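Go through the following before class.
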Amino acid sequence: MEKKHVIVVGAGFAGLTAARELQTAGIDYHIVEARDRIGGRAWTDDRLGRPLEIGATWVHWHQPHVWSEITRYGQDIIASPVVDTAYWYAGGELKSGTEAEMDAKLARPMEKIFENSHEFFPEPHKPLLVLDEKFGASQELKDAFLAADQAGVLDALEDGDFTQEEKDLCNAYWSAGYIGYPEQGSSLMAKQWAALCDHRLSLVDEQTLRYKLVNGMRGIYGNIAKDLTGEIRLNTAVTAIEHGEDSATVTYADGTSETADAVIVTVPVGALGNIEFNPGLPEGSQKTIEQKWNSTGFKAWIKIKGHHNIFGYAPQPAVVSVLRSEYFEDDDTTICVAFGSDHEKIDLESIEDAQKVVDQWRPDLEVVGVTGHDWVADEYSGQAWATLRRGQFTEGWHHFRSSTSSLHFAGADWASGWRGVVVDGAIETGISTAREVINKLRG
């Protein structure tokens, strides 16, 4: 029997883990990657005098797929610092206190935002379980679930006695969490995050913004690549994919093409419009590509003079919603990480823009460097991490999980668990999609 061959499009975490799974099963493959590097939206690069995560950063032992890779490759983690002073806005007034005091102010409104997370996500890695007829949920619960998808993450605070301070804190928190405008983001995403974190705000914070890898993400994606025996072709952009029941033909930007038994596409929604599919994708998938996610924001690294252990929150329309000290350098500087909801509002190489950001909390501090990458403007991503608009939780990402041809999709955008903010979902779908392809090719 002729040996089966699979083309994997993309050398990020999903593509690399899919390739490793195929290799373990004895199926030939090769990876094509549009960029000149591996890693995708995970990118450890040397900037501002030290290795920095330009994309995905945080990991946790409660993230099952990434923790397995941390164990496999003997990587270590380090905690981000607990800050000395936190700054936040309440109705335009700047306040300060300890990190614990700021977190305490978030507790009550976040409990409301996370409301029904137990009922909606009894099994957090099966996000649409309550809509499954076999599960047997009541119609009342199904209706509530669907209604929550149409609601914004901050809508829950409009009813009740929540203070402007509580609303502003949550606005800042979710502007960063949704890496976009929070009023447009489905409330179900925040509720699933809670379910993935034992319904505890403290664990949400731990999993999304506390622990990072000592050697960076490249300590994992670089080691996965070393384990692969198949070819990884960089600078190889895909422009078209023709797919049938038993084969797929991939066409590249240079006009060449090749045919394989199956293709696994790990390109995120924001860049899928660059590929012509024949036959076209189903209506639900195509609609998602046209809408894109709620992911319009950015991540920046800002270097300031002196050692300052600080945390800042600022609601819309602030350019940066969350700023936190991460590294204290030997040259008496501090490198802070910053998140904002709109990539068009900042030049990620402009010290002047970064200074304006820091000034909203500490105008006495001097910015000496800033860096980042505009993932939304990047033609090969078109977004930061995947965050869902209203209605996209129940009508969007899941369309890409089923296949009736030789075309398959993997990537964090389609994950059942952590669909964004961390790499766990990318690894999850790399494994699960590869197993689907393996089983199909084995008949």
Remarks:
- The chain has 13 helices and 20 strands.
- Residues 424-442 form the longest helix (19 residues).
- The chain has a mean pLDDT of 97.
